[in-house]
Amino acid sequence: MTHTQAWQELKEHHRQISTKHMRDLFSQDPQRFERLSLSFEDLLFDYSKNRITDHTLRLLCALAGQCGLEDKIGRMFAGERINCTEQRPALHVALRNRSSRPIHVDGEDIMPRVHAVLDQMRAFVDKVHSGAWRGFTGEPICDVVNIGIGGSDLGPRMAVQALTPYHKPGIKVHFVSNIDPADLADTLAVLRPETTIFLIASKTFGTQETLANAHGARDWFLQAAGETKHVARHFVALSTNRERVRDFGIDPANMFPFWDWVGGRYSLWSAIGLSIALAAGMDRFEELLAGGHAMDEHFRSAPLDRNLPVVMGLLGIWYVNFFGAATQAIVPYAQHLQRLPAYLQQADMESNGKATTCDGRAVCCDTGPVVWGEPGTNGQHAFFQLLHQGTRLIPVDFLVPMHSHYAPGEHHNILLANCLAQCEALMRGRTDAEARIQMEAQGLDQADISRLAPHRVFPGNRPSNLLMFDKLTPRILGILIALYEHKIYVQGTLWGINSFDQWGVELGKQLAGTILTELQEDGALSEHDASTAGLIRHARRNL
Amino acid sequence: MTHTQAWQELKEHHRQISTKHMRDLFSQDPQRFERLSLSFEDLLFDYSKNRITDHTLRLLCALAGQCGLEDKIGRMFAGERINCTEQRPALHVALRNRSSRPIHVDGEDIMPRVHAVLDQMRAFVDKVHSGAWRGFTGEPICDVVNIGIGGSDLGPRMAVQALTPYHKPGIKVHFVSNIDPADLADTLAVLRPETTIFLIASKTFGTQETLANAHGARDWFLQAAGETKHVARHFVALSTNRERVRDFGIDPANMFPFWDWVGGRYSLWSAIGLSIALAAGMDRFEELLAGGHAMDEHFRSAPLDRNLPVVMGLLGIWYVNFFGAATQAIVPYAQHLQRLPAYLQQADMESNGKATTCDGRAVCCDTGPVVWGEPGTNGQHAFFQLLHQGTRLIPVDFLVPMHSHYAPGEHHNILLANCLAQCEALMRGRTDAEARIQMEAQGLDQADISRLAPHRVFPGNRPSNLLMFDKLTPRILGILIALYEHKIYVQGTLWGINSFDQWGVELGKQLAGTILTELQEDGALSEHDASTAGLIRHARRNL
Hints:
The structure is a homodimer.
Chain A: H1 5-17, H2 22-28, H3 32-35, E1 37-40, E2 43-46, H4 54-66, H5 69-77, H6 92-95, E3 104-105, E4 108-109, H7 111-130, E5 143-147, H8 154-162, E6 172-176, H9 181-188, E7 196-201, H10 208-225, H11 231-234, E8 235-238, H12 242-248, E9 255-256, H13 274-280, H14 282-301, H15 308-322, E10 327-332, H16 340-352, E11 370-372, H17 384-389, E12 396-401, H18 410-428, H19 432-441, H20 446-452, E13 464-469, H21 474-495, H22 506-520, H23 530-542
């Protein structure tokens, strides 16, 4: 990417634009909002409050073109092995392919298998909801516990909360992820084994945390149920490892499979989404898929400069690689999107937190930023101080629905007004003169005004995107998640890295195995640095 | 700070040390762990896995000395007006002052007032726990809802979750913060008005979100209770505004006050902590205070180079100002510390996210970083990829208890082993040769080994602190929170900024008022940029 002509032109262009204030860009161009915003269904994507001009966008699209982005998008949908290090396709788009187009892997159309699992999920969900599926004492199911970690947890957890207004009455979905025994203990404390089913979500059925928690849940269950034959009525698996699933006591007929072309962090659209379907019903789950699919169709067909994920990805590159932004804030003005930042943290940082290109060389520019955030308005009372007056440039994505599922009226309007006001404040800031005028109007004396003015100045010129939509529905949730997934792919493609592997999780796992043995046994330690060795000894003395 | 001699020496020293790998620093110095770690009670603070030598630490302490840190610490404890812009002391240390030393503000010893509120809290908590306090139908109280935002929410919420094993049976504490009506609606959905009390936490009793939610709760309550006289049995205030509290229907005898020398983000030690005391009991709350006080005594008396908050603060400055680190990750290996990162996000970013010095000049170096994180081991399956193999240097604080309150044995040992392994992995990394040897041992062929090796290399040399302690008790929680508070003060002092104001929250609030009116009324808009105006019009058409 850094060797393209567009990159050189962007560097030069950045030198010119970095001194310009967005206030001036707005005042010079009355059509800026109309031109620098896009619509997709009821989603309005306003990117006019970025430090760009039309020329910036042209250059960024040229950069994408020179990096072969359109070809790379086509390769993803065609099922090519774009996960180069693991030599697999990345086909989360197949999971939500609502068209009649086949998608081939190794010559086989995978769509019938996708549909078969969706049918299997629907049959199971309907049985649980209708009360046809019963626990070992004959009672219907009231509680569902998803045991999984990483992609088998963050996506479903986020989506289940997002769809709270659609929850089926009588069913409550819980999530356990952490190996910390507190996590399982807190969850079990409010449950009855007779009316609870557990979804064990692990592709290999070998993830350490998930298996430990699954066995903990099984022990707890068997204390009440007694006989192991009852396990099959209370445990199902979201997995591909039929043998291990059966050994655990789960009926293989209740194993919901997925495939090696589904990455963990892209898996909520697969059987991993079973908890979403149990919470909100299979129809809602399919609306979510349809939303994702609608965004897929847009992504594969819209021209680069009208393509939401492309424009969003390019803006991110503009800040990371030209302005040196190290982070990206995600601030949903929607309490039910509380876990969206944590979800996108994995989606983005595990995909693009890499420094080696697909062909094995060191990247020559920064890659994925730190993704973080909390819902608004909460964040305003926490970290917004730094967004407004800190020393760092932090691009912010604001997301806000125009309508609430709850009481219409003022509360939600206050929420919306705050969201729009924060975008405005970040962009325009407050000058020294404005601060002084305001304090004069408040009747402060000149000494106080002079003393306080520097503290009440806001530099502004801080960029944000706004994603405004009608209401938080399953469909828009699907659209938003797919938008971010594709944004991440756009960026990974331009950086030349593989967004679909995660070799960086290996080393810690390997070292943990060694240390666990050493914590639990006496005797000499293997080779460690003095700190790790000292800590193991300290822990041994205290365990 | 940048004009000190120590700063110049640190710049030169950084040039030398930035090329060194911690692996080599460890292998050259067998005593590195012993020397670069500190103990405080049962807390072990290991900072040996940082990119420092003894010389670095000497220079950093010299920097602190040349910035007058010791004097500034003394000024805080002496009650001087260190919150210079608002001309107030910052005396959260008085709230947990368990010594018999008086603390004076304007010549008055404030300790009797602090103790009087603690007595008032104890009496109330005891009444609720004993069942002497009853709801309007005569039933005892089962549920407590804290309605507050920012500092009136994040601290108590974090601490209540942290102290889960100490919760009183029969009482459950809930938190509502967001103006989004979903937040209150979700909480009320599981409550009975007859057995619920609400704590309205707002210093001014005028915070927009808190008042809106308080009125929403009051309406919900009155639908069941009918008569407004019952409000006083179900609503209490954590506030200083007696008049507004009374107007709301709360008995002023049930107003728990605090003072203008308590900043919102430092207020969990004050009456704002009432929800903590209701959850875990007043004795536990006082153990929390005692932990904070113990750290205070350490902070004010330990020499700089053995002083935990000082060393931690200086290490942060080393990374922010010399290595250009833009963020600080907080990763507690304890599910009950899940909200610690969000708590510290406010504590740190609202305190030090500033660019103007106390005397009104622009800072000439970067200040507070973005603070973010999620619990381990969850984070390992999410963003750790980027920590290990991304292009950015991200200092990490790991926190881990050696013992669990829950089932002893393997689960918790796995948690601990993973924590130690991540510190080790970040520090040592994995070389190309090590990656190849490992793949050879796994029997991969040479072509695959060569193809994969660059992806399986970890650069290492990534810094972390480890805070390891026995068990997550109220006392250690107090110690840890006070440690971070003082760390933040150390950094603010060196940067020359005021860590106790928050002017940066003003502008957005002001603009939101204007926009709210415009959303709800027709007619011409006031002066906005084209984007804000366009968005308001779009929303108006759809509301």
